[in-house]
UniProtKB/TrEMBL annotation:
GO molecular function per UniProt: oxidoreductase activity
The species this protein was found in: Mycobacterium kansasii
Position of the signal peptide: none
Protein name: Short chain dehydrogenase family protein
PROSITE patterns found in the cross-reference section: ADH_SHORT (PS00061)
Domain of life per record: Bacteria
Length: 188
């Protein structure tokens, strides 16, 4: 993650390889056998809140996660005739070590404002077990979008129903991250 001008081609490629091509490899491996078996089933892809809303500085990540959501939507219709359901999980904060390992290119993670945003994000994180319960409940109801927390559902509704305030809020978040940006090579 980071500003577009600081992301390298390798960073873009890695993000797409993991977040979009990874699930595609799973689909290529398992879905043909599921169709051939004729017993139905369910495919669950894990996207992200960044696959629903355009979080600042998440261009590569959002591209991969929006792509996975689009793929899942197509498969939901394509596989319905085979009685194969398709869900896409759009988790918010889940209490795992992953949050602390995410690199945001060009952002000083030690900046007090960035730390506050990360703490706010992790402060309302749910346990992996709770996320799993939400996913299983969503699959049992054949839901297309499975939210693990109500804040992401609310944020997505806010985006769709109140575009102008949403865009103002996203610009404000972007400004906070921009203030925390380390100088680039040309700015030193």
């Amino acid at each position: 993650m980071g500003t577009v001008d600081r992301l390298t081609h390798d960073q873009w490629s890695r993000m797409v390889a993991i977040n979009l091509m990874g699930p595609i490899h799973v689909i290529e491996t398992f879905v043909p056998a599921m169709v051939a078996a004729g017993r139905g089933g369910h495919l669950v892809n894990v996207s992200s809140a960044a696959g629903l809303v355009a979080l600042p500085w998440h261009a590569a990540y959002s591209a991969s996660k929006y792509g996975l959501r689009g793929l899942s939507e197509v498969l939901r219709f394509d596989l319905a005739r085979h009685r194969i359901g398709v869900s896409v999980v759009v988790p918010g904060a889940v209490r795992t070590p992953l949050v602390n390992t995410v690199e945001i290119v060009g952002v000083d993670r030690d900046d007090p404002q960035v730390k506050r945003w990360v703490d706010r994000f992790t402060g309302h994180a749910i346990s992996p077990e709770r996320a799993a319960e939400k996913i299983l409940a969503g699959v049992a109801k054949n839901r297309y979008l499975i939210y693990t927390s109500p804040d992401i559902r609310a944020l997505y509704a806010f985006k769709r129903l109140a575009w102008w305030p949403y865009s103002v809020a996203m610009r404000q978040v972007n400004a906070i991250f921009t203030r925390a940006m380390r100088p680039g090579p040309s700015q030193r």
